Amino acid sequence: MSEIKQYAELEYVVDVLQKAILGSKVKQLAPDEIAIIDGNAAIGLKQVESNGSVEIVIRDKKEILYSEELLETLYNIHKGIKHNEELKASLSSANIIINGLNIEAELIFHAMRDHFYTMSDSYEFIKFIEKSNQLMKFNMSFGDDVILELVVLNKPDAISIETILGKSVKPAVQAAIAADVESVRLEINSEFKNK
Fold first, then answer.
1. pLDDT beneath 50: ranges in the chain
2. Whole-number Å distance between alpha carbons of 79 and 72
3. Which residue in 26, 92, 151, 152 is a FRET match for 133, CA 20 to 30 A apart?
4. ∠ at Cα 186 (165, 96), nearest 5°?
5. What is the dihedral of CA 121, 102, 22, 42, to 10 degrees?
6. pLDDT digits over 63-79, tens only?
7. How many domains does the chain have?
8. Mind listing the pLDDT tens digit for each residue in 145-167?
9. Are residues 94 and 109 in the same domain?
């Protein structure tokens, strides 16, 4: 079996991304691993088999895919395949993971962050605490003094958001944050789960 046929999903994803990132170059690191080099930044892609299905694991430390607006392209990558039904089926069920998060969870994070920023200039993303396929934990600040932790789980039928606040946060601020989180939860579920 040839390498191209064996890693057809990886080859297709790399081809789409390289064409979209102008001036980028491709470097084969191993039969199942490729780097797309864009200036002094690189995106690492590796294809692995997981429970009989394909997983494309992407390392993008500089968030090139986000800045180049390629997350949606990756999310719908299978829709661009016209004449290879086997490849299309494989990519439609593939788990694409970017920096530890499934592609849908990555899109959910960016949409959530944008919704919070649109609601109030007081919200600011600080850092990720954990990323694990469909689960993410991250800190945001609200104003100068309040740090909140959000735990987001992307389930097949719904997205749940849990908020963890310190006990010293005033009840009025807690209520405002809870209302904003509920609003974001409803928006995100409507956007991604049609609920």
1. 1-4
2. 11
3. 26
4. 90
5. 100
6. 999 999 999 999 999 99
7. 2
8. 899 999 999 999 999 999 999 88
9. no
